[in-house]
Design goal:
This protein is of the alpha/beta class and 309 residues long. Helix content is 35%, strand content 28%. The protein has a six-stranded mixed β-sheet, sandwiched between helices. Strands 2-1-4-5 form a four-stranded antiparallel β-sheet. A hairpin with a 2-residue loop joins β4 and β5. 35% of the residues are buried. The structure holds adenosine-5'-triphosphate.
Length: 309
Amino acid sequence: MEEPILKVENLSHRYSVQWAIRDINFEITRNGVYGLLGSNGAGKSTTMNIICGVLKQTEGNVFIKGVNMRENPVEAKRHIGFLPQKPPLHTDLTVEEYLLYSARLRQISRAEEDKAVTEALERCGIGHFRKRVIRNLSGGYQQRVGIAQAIIHRPDFVVLDEPTNGLDPNQILEIRHLIKEIAEDCTVILSTHILSEIQATCSYIRMIGQGTLVFSGTVDEFDNYISPSTVFVTLVEAPPIEELQQIPGVVGVEELGGPNYRLRFSDLPQEVIEKVVKTSVVKDWRLTEIRMEKTSLDDVFAELSKKKN
Ligand SMILES: Nc1ncnc2c1ncn2[C@@H]1O[C@H](COP(=O)(O)OP(=O)(O)OP(=O)(O)O)[C@@H](O)[C@H]1O
């Protein structure tokens, strides 16, 4: 079987006395964009810093393509590109000077460095700014420079800590687009506490709540984490509420104004829907709309944030 791109094993970290993360385990085996989700202070940056080898964990191990970060950090880091929450830019340098410096830090050979810089500039859409001093670029373009240094050595695995934080809505769209392009050739993991960011960019989610892993799955699985417990119905000739309450499986009825009602149920949603449809036909309630009401991502996030492993 192929080596996972990332394997996080029993990872725990304590700053002085307080544990920031406890016993986190997960693997990433295929390409795509992974969202590391969690509320402020949940432990995302701590996890990312350890994965990238810039913070030494108290317990546990991180393997990048099978290489143990603790035992062989230089080799493990060759596979990783990292954009920390605060981009490590030298703002007095031009974009080109800075990327050349990054290429040398990444031990790209002198013969290859110009090519690597040009490629990174092009992939991040900043070729026309190569002679610009970084300080004079907008926030969105500075972030692109930060991403360019993260991919200059063509890593298999790119880690971005809150990459759209502080950008305006247009810049956010551009950076999301860039992240998706980068993910065509490698695996990207990005941290965020913004759900729309996950929906717009990611295919998979790992969620940390209060320092522990509380969810690991696809965005669709996250979306369906809480099964729906209400249906919305429109009954043009609705009966008295008491009659609706007698439909088997219905445990509550809410009037929403006009012919609209919310039915709360306890049984399997599909079965209740069938019963509501059948009863409406038999009793001629003139059912014109019926749909399950999905729980919002915010509700799933709130539920998982409370979860303790
Ligand atoms: N250097 C530090 N010293 C002490 N405690 C820290 C340190 N860095 C982080 N912490 C604590 O560890 C916990 C996890 O912090 P971390 O920065 O990893 O969370 P986060 O999910 O990235 O949050 P945010 O979204 O706010 O960046 C928090 O309680 C935080 O206060």
